[in-house]
């Protein structure tokens, strides 16, 4: 049951990441600005899914560090996303766009790491649980 949940959240994050990057590329090329709210909402959904993955990982016993970092990173993603239009306006604003992309990709990477560690932890714990049920 927990394995299916981890995999489901992992695939949701992957799908949302593709949506985010696709929309981001469209925005960078000067297109599809009418989809900005979709980008914002799917970004928030991605962060929520990251937090869910972190909570599952913590519950599975992978430790406190990576889930805590993922929670804080999610706050950074949202804060940057909501304020990026006002940061470093002018000729250097492209730096903020690159940072926004990298921060988002790092969130996806953290989600992947959480999923992998959780699945390994569940695999390692399952044989021990079976031994105790006999």
Task: Please explain how this structure is put together.
The protein has 134 residues and is mainly alpha-helical. The chain has one domain (2-128). Helix content is 83%, strand content 0%. The radius of gyration is 17 Å and the shape is elongated. 24% of the residues are buried. The model has no long low-confidence stretch (mean pLDDT 93).
Keywords:
4 helices, 134 residues, 0% strand, mainly alpha
Number of individual domains: 1
Question: Low-confidence parts, pLDDT < 50 over ≥5 residues?
Answer: none
**Mean of the pLDDT scores?**
93
Note the beta-strand portion: under 5%
User: Helical proportion?
Assistant: over 70%
Could you tell me the number of beta strands? 0
Radius of gyration: 17 Å
Cα end-to-end separation: 21 Å
Inertia-based shape? elongated
Return the string of H and E elements. HHHH
Main pleated-sheet profile: none
Summed up, the helix count is 4
The computed structural class is mainly alpha
């Amino acid at each position: 049951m927990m394995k299916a949940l981890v995999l489901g959240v992992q695939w949701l994050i992957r799908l949302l990441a593709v949506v985010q990057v696709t929309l981001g590329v469209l925005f960078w090329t000067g297109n599809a600005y009418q989809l900005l709210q979709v980008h914002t909402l799917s970004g928030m959904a991605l962060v929520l899914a990251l937090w869910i993955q972190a909570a599952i990982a913590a519950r599975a016993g992978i430790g406190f560090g990576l889930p805590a970092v993922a929670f804080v990173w999610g706050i950074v993603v949202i804060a940057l996303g909501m304020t990026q239009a006002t940061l470093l306006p002018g000729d250097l604003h492209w730096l903020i766009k690159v940072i926004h992309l990298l921060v988002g990709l790092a969130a996806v990477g953290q989600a992947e790491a959480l999923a992998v560690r959780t699945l390994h932890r569940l695999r390692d714990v399952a044989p021990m649980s079976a031994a105790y049920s006999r």
